[in-house]
Amino acid sequence: GAGVSQSPSNKVTEKGKDVELRCDPISGHTALYWYRQSLGQGLEFLIYFQGNSAPDKSGLPSDRFSAERTGGSVSTLTIQRTQQEDSAVYLCASSEQAGDEQYFGPGTRLTVT
Amino acid sequence: GNSVTQMEGPVTLSEEAFLTINCTYTATGYPSLFWYVQYPGEGLQLLLKATKADDKGSNKGFEATYRKETTSFHLEKGSVQVSDSAVYFCALSDRSGGFKTIFGAGTRLFVKA
């Protein structure tokens, strides 16, 4: 079946602009995760959704970052007033249940100029 | 809080050499442990997992044993191939952490022909 998809694959934006990144998880997966991977670095946890529970936002680096998940499926990560340090690959993953193995999307490469 | 520590890379080996990538963890509960792999130009994918103490995860010739007494989950392969060149991430997921998955920093492996 279809895997996790993300759009856009690449995004170049000017400093100070807002961006929206989209994630389509695998159908039926109740858990959805967002991570950030900077060049040569590991994965930095951002936010996690599980079913209808309140999301775990403990990894969001600032209040410029927010995410929502509509209808328990598609998720959007929004970064307001982008800064150059926001440049990274943003990865989305989903799993059947929380704690299960995660299936990753191809990522969105964000470049802030 | 929960954490994962894995050996720094890069690790450079000749083909058919034995591979060990060390991973140790800290968790307040009883986590599930994972190794994920990121091949050049590809997305992250699960390599293997173990969900309880003394379990051995295995896949593609790689193995890792969940050692509760040493809080370790070292990745091993008896004979590496050039195609194993990738970045390897150790990770844990634990109910006490709300099933938020914590990743290690990643270890880059280069295998020379």
Please describe what this structure looks like.
- The complex is a heterodimer of chains A (113) and B (113).
- Chain A has strands spanning 5-7, 10-13, 19-24, 31-37, 43-50, 65-69, 75-79, 88-95, 103-104, 108-112.
- With 113 residues, chain A is mostly beta strands.
- The model of chain A has no long low-confidence stretch (mean pLDDT 93).
- With 113 residues, chain B is mainly beta.
- Helices cover 0% and strands 50% of the residues of chain B.
- Chain B has strands spanning 3-6, 11-14, 19-21, 23-26, 32-38, 44-50, 56-59, 62-65, 75-77, 86-93, 102-103, 107-112.
- In chain B, strands 2, 5, 6, 10, 11 and 12 form a six-stranded mixed beta sheet that branches.
- Classes of the chains: A mainly beta (113), B mainly beta (113).
- Chain A binds chain B through residues 31, 33, 35, 41-43, 45, 48, 50, 56, 58-59, 91, 93, 98-99, 101-107, and chain B through 32, 34, 36, 43-46, 49, 89, 93-95, 98-106.
